[in-house]
């Protein structure tokens, strides 16, 4: 801009008032339409805008869109039971089809971590739904061996989610420091607590515990099954369990008292009393 306008040195060329005012108005009009004034006006308007913030938000939206596409690709691999080695190839295919997939998270290692993250978030959502709805919980546990050849336990749940029919859900694969009953019990309770099931909630809603017949699992005094005894009061609150137990007992009594079974029992008694006829 000219020095006259910057330092307010604009003056008229005539001594009369009317002519001076007309001269000044003419200079102002020419300045208003000048390129310098338009540039100054644009700079003033831009100064009131959050240009840096808008730029950061635009870049962030682009990066989020790219990451979203990569996450969906990794989720597809897990859902369709495809190997993680397909991740890079699928990324390349989508790029050739015109999709913007970014420049990172293209390796199979990234795909593995992405699926782990998605699984954790889905598990949190499911556990939150179970806890808030106070669904009754059954725990099924079995021993296994991890990739590093360490003893581990597989923890599964059978529970109703959002009021639907109860179904089996995998919760965690827990490596064991030892195979003593106390350590297994502590590892199981720690696993449930980490997942979001508090001790108070378990005492009200944990109704059963299922495992194989190993003594370390079912010991009356020191086995993991002590956990089931600790929450057995919850079963008393579930009337359907007691009704089912009565139904099974009636079916057993009816079957065991049938004429066919009576004849079978009598024949077995005769054979046992006369071993020479066997």
UniProtKB/TrEMBL annotation:
Tree of life domain: Eukaryota
This protein's name: DUF4371 domain-containing protein
Source organism of the structure: Muraenolepis orangiensis (Patagonian moray cod)
């Amino acid at each position: 801009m000219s020095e006259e306008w910057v330092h307010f040195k604009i003056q008229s060329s005539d001594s009369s008032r009317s002519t001076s005012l007309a001269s000044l108005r003419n200079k102002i009009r020419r300045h208003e339409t000048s390129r310098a004034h338009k540039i100054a006006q644009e700079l003033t308007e831009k100064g009131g805008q959050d240009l840096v913030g808008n730029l950061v938000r635009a870049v962030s939206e682009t990066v989020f869109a790219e990451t979203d596409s990569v996450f969906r690709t990794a989720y597809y691999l897990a859902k369709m039971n495809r190997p993680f080695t397909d991740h890079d190839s699928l990324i390349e295919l989508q790029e050739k089809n015109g999709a913007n997939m970014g420049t990172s998270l293209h390796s199979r290692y990234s795909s593995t971590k992405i699926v782990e993250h998605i699984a954790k978030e889905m598990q949190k959502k499911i556990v939150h739904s179970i806890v808030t709805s106070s669904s009754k919980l059954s725990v099924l546990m079995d021993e296994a061996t991890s990739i590093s050849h360490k003893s581990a336990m597989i923890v599964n749940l059978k529970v109703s989610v959002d009021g639907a029919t109860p179904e089996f859900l995998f919760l965690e694969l827990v490596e064991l420091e030892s195979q003593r009953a106390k350590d297994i019990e502590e590892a199981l309770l720690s696993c449930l607590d980490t997942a979001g099931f508090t001790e108070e909630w378990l005492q009200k809603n944990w109704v059963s515990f299922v495992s194989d017949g190993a003594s370390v699992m079912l010991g009356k005094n020191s086995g993991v099954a002590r956990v089931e005894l600790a929450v057995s009061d919850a079963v008393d609150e579930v009337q359907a369990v007691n009704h089912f137990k009565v139904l099974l007992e009636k079916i057993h009594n009816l079957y065991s008292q049938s004429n066919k079974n009576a004849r079978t029992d009598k024949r077995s008694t005769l054979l046992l009393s006369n071993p020479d006829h066997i």
